[in-house]
Amino acid sequence: MQDCFRGRGDRIGWVKPAGMHLTLKFLGEIEEEMIAPVGERIDQACQEQDPFLLRLIGVGVFPGFKRPRVLWVGVGEGAEKLREIFETLDPLLGEIGFPTGEKNFHPHVTLGRIKKLHNRLGFVERVKENKMVHVGEMKVEAVRLIESRLRPGGADYRDRFVVSLEKRVPDTPGE
Questions:
Q1: What is the pLDDT of residues 100-133, one digit of tens each?
Q2: The domain containing residue 65 runs over which residues?
Q3: Is 21 a catalytic residue?
Q4: Single pTM value for the model
Q5: In this structure, is residue 172 part of a structural domain?
Q6: Which of 9, 89, 137, 159 is 20 to 30 A removed from 40 (C-alpha atoms)?
């Protein structure tokens, strides 16, 4: 999808494929001692969630067509499952001091950050042409707490806590 927008004279900071992700909730900078409590809340929020299919569909921009700053791919099938996890997780994180009540959860994968457009109207037209295009699909099997560190070559991501959505077998006493 990025290739569809390249080579048009625009200045866009493209996200490398290895750095593409979907954010359930941005937490900002957190202290090391908060990793375990955040991970516990993620685990709680995912208790009833099985792996599910996520279909990436259509492109759009934030904040809008007048001054687009971010080019993204949206989520079709699977968006409701993501919303369920978010709506369960948000108040649980509130219990340990994180802001809650975000009303505009919009699951997406960022493709690029727009610095300058050579032809804004042409760019907007290209976005509209790809509003419903099927981009891909994936099976969501885990929710991760990810640390990102900005580096000169782009962000560096590291898993700090991973919750598998695969069926968990409860521990049986005496075994």
A1: 988 788 999 999 999 999 999 999 999 999 999 9
A2: 2-164
A3: yes
A4: 0.86
A5: no
A6: 137
